[in-house]
Amino acid sequence: MSDARNQARAVLEGPDIHRALTRIAHEILERTRGAENIVLIGIPTRGATLAHRIAGRIAQFEEIKVPVGAIDVTMYRDDLRLRPARPLGRTELPQDGVDGRTVVLVDDVLYSGRTVRAALDALNDVGRPRAVQLATLVDRGHRELPIRADYVGKNLPTSKSEKVKVFLEETDGRDAVVLIKEDDR
Amino acid sequence: MKHHLISTGDLTRDDALLILDTAEELAQVSQRSIKKLPTLRGRTVVNLFFEDSTRTRISFEAAAKRLSADVINFSAKGSSVSKGESLKDTALTLEAMGADAVVIRHSASGAPHRLATWVRGSVINAGDGTHEHPTQALLDAFSIRRRLGRLEGLKIAIVGDVLHSRVARSNVLLLHTLGAEVTLVAPPTLLPVAVETWPCQVSYDLDAVLPKSDVVMMLRVQLERMNAAYFPSAREYSRRYGLDRDRFARLHDDAVVMHPGPMNRGMEISAEVADSPRSTIVEQVTNGVTVRMAVLYLLLGGSEPAIGGAE
Fold first, then answer.
1. B195 close to B162: Cβ distance less than 8 angstroms
2. CA-nearest residue of chain B to A90?
3. ipTM
4. Which pLDDT score, from 0 to 100, does residue A9 have?
5. Contact check, Cβ <8 Å, A75/B297
6. CA distance A80 to B290
7. Distance, first Cα to last Cα, chain A
8. Of A181, B153, B168, B189, which is most buried by a Cβ count within 10 Å?
9. Do the chains contact at A84 and B303, CB–CB below 8 Å?
10. Is residue B298 within 8 angstroms of chain A, CB to CB?
11. With an 8 Å Cβ cutoff, are B37 and A75 in contact?
């Protein structure tokens, strides 16, 4: 029937991702008055990679070393019972923790908002941040919870039948954001 | 392995590594101020103990509670079992109460296996007779990996009353799966029939095995099961198979000493060795909770168990 069942299209390439992260780093500096007292916490695996990249840029622009960490949200997900139990990701909190600091959560794709909700719960169990903000490389819409991002790399209008996949150099050998259209036959 | 954990022989290498890796992540939870995860909210875990075992029961209870499961403790003493209820009827009662998992300790080998055919929930073997004690083996493997960084290629000696030890059998099967070389060391009277079919070496001479070992796991002499003359006297056993200061000195510098507890100090292990920094005995208790959390999560956390295939 159709010639290609899955059509994949790169919506962001390496340089685009590079620029988006640079802009996010600048916005974070701007909005937190020079990244004062902030902690970047990524959601594994790609969110954690992005958090390190953003921290690298902040260090480059302002010579500030921002603490970076990762928080695994698997045990806090609301869809655990819909799928077999999953392997856990790495949780690595900065030495001084998150108490009293502004936490910027970093994830690769913002979709239903459920992962972020789980992350907020997980964060709650490891400390009490002064405030929590959210940075995401791609916002693809279709929120199911009242959650929005403070820093967005790219707003990407999608349909629910599409898939967004983020590839990063560190884990996948290349930088790209790919939109996969699945023919629903 | 279906959705039960009855024998470590049912675990593939990938299953076993998944359990150890999950435990590695969960170890952090025990160090935070809020030692609780919401993962098993609304699930019920029944601790069904037909044999006294405070430490294993408490360990499972702590593990289930840290994952927010509801825990029901059922001990045979003073219960319907002492009035003559059969295992099957007990199982049906638990089933009717909606138990998602049953942790069972029983003096009869094979009881968990039978139980698994009567209940819909997951059955976790917490020690059955002289058969198996899979979570103990998993926590031992976890403790070794944490101390020495690996399991593959390690030389592990398991010393003592292998005949009555469910810990030994579970450990041999698991450690073999994970690529370690196991040697059982015991007097011939304390080795089970058909031990030559186990995936391990057998030796009667502790002094010959010690210098080559990376890990020495001492087993408890189960005095309550010593109903035949397995060895001439406690003193003679201790002389030949006890880990005392002199033998300890012959181990290489990185080797660790383990014991599943409870210890008979002065019998199979001297107090000095048990309290040395190269003994993992206290860590093993801490790691027990973590590993049991991992097992409960992997069996109950999702729509279906993550370890072992379907059916």
1. yes
2. B25
3. 0.87
4. 87
5. yes
6. 20
7. 9
8. B168
9. yes
10. yes
11. yes
The CATH T-level fold of domain B135-279 is Rossmann fold (3.40.50)
The single-letter code of the amino acid at B101 is: A
State how beta strands A162-167 and A176-182 pair.
antiparallel
Q: Which CATH number is A14-79+90-158 given?
A: 3.40.50.2020
For the record, the structure tokens of A80 come out as: 């655990």
Answer yes or no: are the C-beta atoms of A139 and A155 closer than 8 Å: yes
Closest CB from B26, B34, B302 relative to A86: B302
Nearest-CA neighbor of A78 among B201, B291, B39?
A: B39
Task: pLDDT band for A35, please (50, 70, 90 cuts).
Answer: confident
Q: What is residue B78's predicted lDDT score, i.e. its pLDDT? A: 67
A73 part of contact set with chain B, CB < 8 Å:
no
- pLDDT of B8-54, one tens digit each? 999 999 999 999 999 999 998 888 888 999 999 999 999 999 988 88
Question: Which residue among B18, B298, B302 sits closest to A81, beta carbon to beta carbon?
Answer: B302
Residue B2 has what pLDDT? Answer: 55
B227-246 pLDDT, tens digit per residue, is 777 888 888 899 999 999 99
CATH number of B8-133+285-300: 3.40.50.1370
Task: Say whether residue A157 is in contact with chain B using an 8 A CB cutoff.
Answer: no
Residue A88 near residue A75 (C-beta atoms within 8 A): yes
Inter-CA distances, B80 with B1, B75, B83, B87, Å = 31, 10, 5, 10
pLDDT digits (tens, 9 = 90+) for A88-136: 999 999 999 999 999 999 999 999 999 999 999 999 999 999 999 999 9
Instruction: Using DSSP, state whether A62 is helix, strand or coil.
Output: helix
Burial class (CB in 10 A: 0-12, 13-18, 19+), B5: buried
Crossing angle between the packed helical segments B134-148 and B54-66, to the nearest 10 degrees: 70
Beta bridge partners of A136: A107, A152
Give domain limits for chain B.
Answer: 8-133+285-300, 135-279
Residue A33 backbone phi and psi in degrees, to 5: 50, 65
